[in-house]
Amino acid sequence: MHTAGLHAVRQNGKDMKNCQECGEPIIGRMDKKFCSDLCRNSFNNRLNSNSHNFVRNINNQLKKNRRILEALCPDDKSKVTKSILLSKGFDFNHITHIRPTLKGSIYHFVYDYGYLELDHDFYLIVKDNRLEK
Ligand SMILES: [Zn+2]
């Protein structure tokens, strides 16, 4: 995502801003975000494209999954049932990575929170503290 346009800088005593699409300096009113209609259109087309929405929806679900794990695991470890996870809206299809242990268990991670399927529909939630070291 372009952020160049968010920073207005002063050059030669004049307020300068850059196009959010191409990064070129914008001439004219300070509230303009794009240098041309072409740039505004291509920026908006990308924002509304299916692939952009697809990525955004997955990112939102991943963040939601992480929030659920974080709420259910206030300490380093916690044990919950599958129905609790599902009732909060947890989606088991959206994880960021998996990590097998030496003993052959496979932890599924959503960023820094992981879970391990136990017997009888229980899940162990763990926080990966290695990230904080
Ligand atoms: Zn432009």
Give a quick set of tags describing it.
disordered N terminus, alpha+beta, 133 residues, binds zinc ion, 2 domains, 5-stranded antiparallel β-sheet
Give the secondary structure arrangement, pairings included:
Elements lengths: L8 E3 L2 E5 L6 E2 L10 H12 L1 H23 L4 E5 H6 L9 E4 L5 E5 L2 E5 L4 E6 L6
Antiparallel strand pairs: 1-2, 2-3, 4-8, 5-6, 6-7, 7-8
The chain binds zinc ion.
Describe the overall structure:
The protein is α+β, with helices and mostly antiparallel strands. It has two domains: 4-48, no CATH class; 51-132. The chain is 31% helix and 26% strand. The protein is built from three helices and eight strands. The structure holds zinc ion. The site of zinc ion has 8 residues, from loops.
Could you tell me which ligands this complex binds, including any ions or cofactors? Answer: zinc ion
Total domains, how many?
Answer: 2
Total E-strand runs:
8
Helix content: 25-40%
